[in-house]
Amino acid sequence: MYQGKRGAKFVSKREDDFKEKFQHKLGRVLDPIAETMNVPPDYTFGACLRPEEYGVGDLIHNRLPGEYLRGKDRQRALIAAVRHHLKKVNYQKFDTLLAAFRHYDKKGDGMIDKAELQEACDQANLSLDDKLLDQLFDYCDVDNDGLINYLEFANFLNWKDKMLLKEYEERVIIKGRKPDCVNPTEANVEEPEPTLLIKPEDIVLKEPGSTEKTLRTLLRPSDKVSNYYKTTSSEINAVVGAVPSTCYPICGVPTIRSDIPAPRIRRISDRTNYGEEGSAYSLLYPTIFAQKGVFERDFFKTRSKEEIAEILCNIGVKLSDEEFENVWNLASKKHHRGEVCVENIRNVLDELRHADRIKCKTPM
After folding, report:
1. Distance (Å, whole) CA 3 – CA 11
2. pTM given for the model
3. What is the pLDDT of residues 90-103, one digit of tens each?
4. Disulfide engineering: 155 pairs with which of 22, 165, 218, 310, CB 3.0-4.6 Å?
């Protein structure tokens, strides 16, 4: 009996291994599956399903594999911002599309290559890297010939509906000659303009029954929606002057109440979004102007000379009386009625600063 008590105790190895793995021990972290985790740190358990390269919009628009837009939101936003800036510069500096095109077309061959587009962007105070410049050029080059023609330039880098064609401009871009010259000797000078910038059928009326002419709208290949695809708005003829929004079929209350006007004075308890609020991107990345309570309408509001001078003084822009008078005169020439806003002053200051920078780079 005594020997039996002091003898070895037989236990099951499976039971002993289980206690070794799952029982708490002093000074050691309980990790029951430590021995089974002999895998690389980036190992993924289960089936690894990669997201599709295309989205719903790519399916609707029948985009080819090389034209998928999923995951390119930032790229598209940058291109849209650059195009908007170039459109604004062209609209403010030039009276006609032809004058703007001549500014871009330095060689006078009727086409804009990548180097000429880069030079125009530099003159517009846009510093683009090679990748963004290539993306902008590819966006405007619809026919993929490596050049931007007059029609592509008017559609993607200008507000063509605001810069209507004039009679002499139409003769130049179709027949390739200057407007009638007063001096007969000027008419014999060789014209560097190309013989044909666009075809006659590319010129259309702005509106049916109107005498104002513009260029036809050019669609990118990825913007062509399937003919059989119809949206709800197209089914109920949702165009200006047609069925009013009050007659639309109502299926619940929309999140953005663009169907009703925003109240002039909003209550504090009114949490309704009337369409004038910012998006999620503007909430995550607010501009410095939004943080200070300044909105777009404040930049384009017509202001007096004294008010502009006070604004420049408050933001730390120090100008002498002569310099301010020069800036004011240049800004007033940008509007046909001589009205001046903060945006015009800002553009003039940027142009003067860019001119000084170019002057400093020019070797004496």
Report:
1. 18
2. 0.46
3. 888 888 888 899 89
4. 218
